[in-house]
Every structure is written in structure tokens, then in C-alpha cells.
Amino acid sequence: MPTLDLIYVLDVLNAMSDVEVALRDLYKACAEKWPSNAAFWNEISEAEDRHSLNMIRMTGIVSSKHEKFSLNRPSNEVAIRNFIKSINNTKERVVKGELDQKKALYLIKDMERSVLESKYKDFLTTNDIEYNTLVSAIVRETEDHNATINKKIAEMEKE
Fold first, then answer.
1. Whose CA is closest to 62, among 116, 146, 135?
2. What is the spatial distance between Cα 15 and Cα 8, in angstroms, rounded to a whole number?
């Protein structure tokens, strides 16, 4: 991978890690705002923290073994940064009390779906087992978040 491409790839991976941190912080804010569901929010917050750490490890792997990777599906760092702004805006709305928990869940459901649709796993192609394992873990847990959030929404609809 040429140097310019490596810089681009590392920038995108760092931005993806920042998405995970922003989501973690949003879920922490939700846990504080709605303590009756703190366990729910803290669980997915902790998973986002793991995702961020995985992204940092993935960045290190790509950096040290860049010859084993090829760009498969380009990503737009500016779009990722705008997504982070949207997440942070939602967090501020939660903190200020502008959203009730149900509305926040619907917005978060859309955010988690956006993360899935960004197709982290398709960004780079490699046979590196450690990298692919980390990507698979993020995708699997994000799919689990989506299911957990849908379940929570269904529970709230019944109330």
C-alpha cells in the first residue's frame, strides 16, 4: 500500500474509532439520564469501549503490516466526522433533557444501523487473522446492539 494510501487508511480507522468513543459517551449520558435502565446503557457503552480499543489495535496492525492489506471499499473521513457530530448532538440533547428515552432509542437505533451499513468489514481486504477477528467482533457486537435496542424499544412500546 503506497504511503499516501496508508495515511488515508489510518485516518479513516482513527475516525472509526472516534465513532465508537462518541457512541460510548452517548450511552454513558443515557445511563446517567435514565438510571432505571443504567444497566442496559452501561452494557452497550462498555461494548463501544471495546470496539474503540479494537479499532486502535486494528490501526496498529495495518500500520505494521500494511503490505498485507488492500483497500476494498473507500470510506469518507469527512462523512464519518459529520456522523460523530450527529452523535455528539444527540448526546447533548439527552443531557439537556430534550429527548425522552424512547425517542433517544429510536435515534440510537438509526445510528447503530448506520454503523452496520458503513461495513467496517468491507473497508480493507486482508488475510490477517488478528485484524479479521477484531473486525468480526465489532460487527457481531454491533448486530447484537441493534437487536438489544430493538428489544428495548418493543418493551417501551408495551408500557
1. 135
2. 11
* pLDDT tens-place string over residues 12-58: 999 999 999 999 999 999 999 999 999 999 999 999 999 999 999 99
Angle at 124 between CA 150 and CA 145, to 5 degrees: 15
- pLDDT at residue 84, as a whole number: 96
All domains of the chain, ordered by start, with CATH? 3-158 (1.20.1260)
Q: Vertex 38, ends 37 and 43: CA angle to 5°?
A: 110
- What is the C-alpha to C-alpha distance for residues 49 and 127, in angstroms, rounded to an integer? 25
**What does pTM read for this prediction?**
0.92
Terminal CA-CA length for the chain:
54
Among all chains, which residue has been given the C-alpha cell 474509532?
Answer: 17
DSSP, res 95: H
How is residue 42 annotated by DSSP? H
Q: Give the pLDDT mean for 49-69.
A: 94
